[in-house]
Design brief:
47% helix; Rossmann fold; Rna Polymerase Sigma Factor, Chain: A; seven-stranded parallel β-sheet; 17 helices; four-stranded mixed β-sheet; alpha/beta
Length: 385
Amino acid sequence: MLKIAVLGSTGSIGKQTLDIVRNNQNHFKISALTANSNIQLLCEQAKEFKPETIAIADISKYRQLKRTIDSDIRVLSGVEGIIEAATQDSTDLVLSAIVGIAGLEPTYNAIKKGKRIALANKETLVTAGSIIMTEAAKHNVQIIPVDSEHSAVFQCIQNDGNNIDKIILTASGGPFRTKTYDEITKATVADALNHPNWCMGKKITIDSATLMNKGLEVIEAKWLFGVSSDKIEVCIHPQSIIHSMVEYVDGSIIAQLGIPDMRLPIQYALTYPHRTKVTGTKLKLSEVKKLTFEKPDNKRFPCLKLAYDALQQGESACVVLNGANEIAVNSFLQRKIKFTDIYRLVYSVLEDHNSMVVSSINDVFLIDDWSRNACKELLKKGGYN
């Protein structure tokens, strides 16, 4: 019986993880659940799965949560509470699905405690890749990727990582794949959230529309698989059937295929190195009929190149990229800026950044704070156009 702590249980990945646990109660037990502020759903989940611990990031909601929840369940709050839930002794595996850089510290501390990690929070490696992978090696912790693309690469590599010539990350192209630049400049929030293939949270859906999500995945892949950026290629694949590929030195390309359903990589991360039967729809190639591929267009989607540039500049630039992007995306979702302003804001903040050494988690947060504040100042001044 694998005991799982789900960090971000009320989000998209968290809810799908609990679906898998619900359908495999002989294999999994929930030991801890955490949420940002959604008390109602967290209480419903706690009532069903009866974890040892639950934690709410929003400290102001602690008392309300404490009054509502069963007295047998330990209730915690704040960053410290999330970390405590992630590191408790009874947990075997931590499913890290908190959105944004908020997921970094709990994941880092879980690694230090020797917990196996199923990683759905890409910001952990985007902002602190070297630190995280060093700590994981030190504590002999295995990090299993949950992102569909990285899960695909992980499955394709297995025990043949030394002969990789190239990692090929596929991308659907998002809702604006066939739009002109002029059409993209007029995109509304509703347009950007209308992803053709995947049902995800708002932030990652906007990142998918700008292709920043794929850029962040390039950075994540660099640390997960220990390859340089020139060995990571992005390919637009509108059908989202091939989730990623690995090209070997002899020219062979190994691909992982499946329907666009996050439950598949989540379940694989929970059961690795084994596989368990999945209920529901399976891929039928005869119904797919065709698979197509395109090169990404950096003129219409410049955020992808921006991520590659940040990776070349160094680790601090990746922290800046991520922080500024979070502020810019949130501003767009609040309808304060245009869709194409997301790129302009992040580019402007990166232009003002002087690269520095990132040697600790504290360094990451200091650089992240600078990035967010710089982005907010540009928003006030309007100097990013």
